[in-house]
Amino acid sequence: MIPEGIGRYQSVARRFLQPVVARLWDFQVEGLEHVPDTGPAVLCPNHVAAIDSAFVPAVLDRNLIYVGKSEYLDDWKTRRLFPALGMIPIDRRGGDHAKAALDTARAVLEGGGLFGIYPEGTRSRSGKLHKGHTGAARLAIETGAPIIPVGLLGTADIQPVDAAMPKFFRRVVIRFGEPIEVERYQSRIGDRAVYRELIDDVMYEIQSLTGLDYVNVYAGSAAKPEPADVSASVAAPSAGARAPVATIERPLSTSVLTSEPLVPLAEVLAAS
Q1: Distance of alpha carbon 2 from alpha carbon 114, whole angstroms
Q2: With a threshold of 0.85, does the pTM exceed it?
Q3: How far is CA 268 from CA 50, 82, 95, 201, 226, in A?
Q4: pLDDT digits over 147-171, tens only?
Q5: Fewest C-beta atoms under 10 Å: which of 131, 137, 203, 253?
Q6: 133 in Cβ contact with 121 (< 8 Å)
Q7: Which CATH architecture group holds 10-270?
């Protein structure tokens, strides 16, 4: 069951904010027809700026429920506002602490809603595209909801890492890819090879939508230190920018499997 109040004011806020946002930034939106008018879907954008979570819902005609760290609710100014706008608070300690958020995510999809999750798990401070966690794939397969890859460009320039306020009158490109259907995977729920194959396919599609450099490590991994200034490594999109061609090979599940234990879904969501 979706907790009372989650997303209550998102549709009202969207009607008010859409014309405001359209004046403050130059939006180029492509592939919006891939987002279904009804029924469930998991939206998977790349993530380089805090404002990403505002821009994607702003261009939709339906409510989009996201997970967000529970620390946002420590501030009295956001304690009620963020959940009312569609944020599911999640305790990032994972395990049983995150169970309520996990149950809510499933309820959103089983109720025919849109659910948004960043497959990279956290913001990329380098601006590169990182290896995807399998949480989105597991949610989609368990509920039967298709995954829609989303490519974001320009948001790193609008709100660089650690910037409190965004810059106005900049261009942002949002590209919605074709839905990735999951029916063929549903007989193998619990199979980590399937989860990995599906999320790698999602990351391939995001890379083809953005043209971002791909690194096969998780965002925030100590194995790959990242520069603090993401805006210096990601050029702002030009007017009429076209979707680039993917520069990474579409992976096969047999090439990406490791001996690492499968991370519990609740912990993956907690990292978002």
Answers
A1: 13
A2: no
A3: 19, 21, 9, 18, 21
A4: 999 999 999 999 998 898 999 999 9
A5: 253
A6: yes
A7: 3-Layer(aba) Sandwich (3.40)
